[in-house]
Design brief:
- The chain is mainly alpha-helical.
- It has helices spanning 10-24, 27-30, 45-49, 55-65, 68-89, 92-108, 111-122, 128-140, 145-158, 163-173, 179-190, 203-209, 299-320, 336-347, 366-375, 386-391, 399-410, 419-423, and strands spanning 259-262, 282-286, 325-328, 351-355, 379-383.
- A five-stranded parallel beta sheet has the order 3-2-1-4-5, with helices on both faces.
- Strand 2, helix 13 (299-320) and strand 3 form a beta-alpha-beta unit.
- The structure holds flavin-adenine dinucleotide.
Length: 424
């Protein structure tokens, strides 16, 4: 797997961002083309997802290089990510309902549906271009945004398969898997996210935007003919009303109490956050076993994430130079909660600090972790990044309402004002 192509370290992500900066101004005209090398897009999504580089840094660098107008489209895409995160934070039930539906469908979907889902996911649908995308995902952990839209639409509206099983397949194989961007994009293609709007894959659109070599084998393409593809009506199972955002501090606060600092996959640059100020913390990282064997990430995604978290761990170690640390595999049969509570007993810390767990697989374990730590007399402080604190509350309505407010403020960014300052 090419960890330079899809940067898995902070250094390589910064290099990729610097290389991509000149192309940002052309992005609005080129971003929809699906080329085999993906040179028209940044390929930074996994690095941003893992916070090896942050959204804030990306936006800051782009605006330091270009005036707002020519790069608005690129910046807007980065903010789509923050918007989706906020939208899901405000509606955690959408995530839990999705995961419950996946478990239900894995057990209860009729055998022919499960078999067909496996065939399509493995790249054996019989539509050559879609099978090529399926194999690309399995082989590289990446698909261009347009290919993701086509493939998800093919899955739902041409194959008639449950969207939840397709989203779960992406979840296990994308290097950049994000609970918000992934689940909500699949819901959008299915017609659930924006009522009345469904995304339909169409042959004419593929012929316009896909590189000719992707269409050289035309086997099965007739199934994507514009007049053949019809929207499937997908049932809503989730409660999508926004709730209030959980309160979290933006700083860990001063304390004399022995403190553990938990480095996890949600934030790969704690040394550049407010957590950097912690004095002599006991540094912890725990490999996270999947809740269920069926949730196991694919081999390519696993290698990428190990590399990324190794990089984050190395930088945190260099910053804190800790007297004590634990980096354990987490595969000894104990749950994450038991391991963290065990480490608190072993190292005698009474306070655990970490970056916030945003809605997703890790946060699903929050209650169990909190209880296990409380039983050991340990207080757990999850710290929210100021970026998230500024943006998540704005995701109560649609993206264009969000962008109206954010874009207006960003246009005011000028020398001497930080992006974050104008957003707050
Ligand atoms: C069905 C489906 C599933 C998706 N699942 C994920 C996912 O799990 N994780 C994920 O990060 N993105 C997901 N996306 C969004 C998007 O496809 C990827 O972020 C993008 O293709 C990543 O490539 P890039 O870094 O070259 O993006 P660029 O085009 O270079 O965009 C720059 C950055 O903006 C953000 N971004 C771009 N497009 C979107 C978008 N539509 N939504 C949210 N953020 C965006 C990413 O952080 C990206 O790195 C999904 C889209 C679809 C249609």
């Amino acid at each position: 797997m090419d960890v330079e192509r899809f940067p898995a370290t902070r250094e390589s992500a910064q290099r990729r961002l610097a290389d991509f900066l000149p192309a940002c101004a052309r992005y609005s005209g080129t971003r929809n083309r699906v080329l085999t090398g993906h040179d028209d897009v940044s390929r930074l999504s996994a690095a941003i997802r893992a916070r090896l580089v942050t959204e804030e840094e990306v936006v800051r660098e782009v605006l330091a290089t270009h005036p707002f107008g020519p790069v608005e489209k690129f910046i807007q895409e980065v903010f789509w990510r923050s918007y989706w995160k906020g939208w899901l934070q405000l509606r955690p039930a959408v995530w839990t309902t999705f995961r419950r539906r996946v478990e239900h469908l894995r057990r209860e979907a009729p055998e022919p549906v499960r078999r067909r889902a496996e065939e399509v996911a493995a790249g054996r649908s019989g539509v050559a271009v879609m099978d090529r995308f399926a194999r690309e995902l399995l082989g590289t952990g990446y698909l261009h945004n347009h290919a993701r839209m086509w493939w998800a639409s093919f899955w739902i509206h041409v194959e008639g398969l449950p969207w939840e099983l397709g989203a779960d397949h992406f979840q296990r194989h994308l290097l950049d898997f994000d609970p918000a961007s992934n689940t909500l994009s699949w819901r959008w293609v299915a017609g659930l996210q924006t009522p009345g709007k469904t995304y339909l894959v169409r042959r004419s659109n593929l012929e316009k935007f896909a590189a000719p070599e992707l269409l050289a084998d035309a086997t099965g393409i007739g199934r994507l003919d514009d007049d053949r593809v019809r929207a499937v009506v997908v049932e809503e199972h989730a409660d999508t009303r926004p709730s209030s955002l959980a309160e979290r501090p933006e700083r860990p606060g001063e304390s004399e109490v022995a403190t553990g600092l938990w480095i996890h996959e949600e934030d790969g640059s704690v040394e550049l956050s407010s957590l950097a100020a912690l004095r002599n913390p006991i540094l912890l990282h725990i490999g996270i076993p999947p809740a269920d064997a069926d949730d196991e990430p694919g081999p390519v995604a696993r290698v990428w994430r190990d590399r990324a978290v190794g990089d984050a761990w190395g930088r945190a170690n260099a910053h804190f130079d800790p007297d004590r640390w634990e980096n354990c595999a987490g595969d000894g049969g104990d749950s994450l909660a038991q391991t963290l509570a065990g480490l608190a007993g072993e190292h005698g810390f009474r306070r655990l600090v970490s970056a916030e767990l945003a809605v997703g697989p890790l946060a699903d374990q929050r209650d169990e972790i909190r209880k296990a730590l409380a039983d050991e007399g340990v207080e757990w402080i999850e710290v929210r990044r100021p970026w998230d604190a500024a943006l998540w509350p704005l995701a109560r309505k649609g993206f264009f309402d969000f962008w109206d407010r954010v874009g207006r403020r960003l246009r005011k960014t000028c020398e001497g004002t930080s992006v974050l300052e104008v957003l707050r």
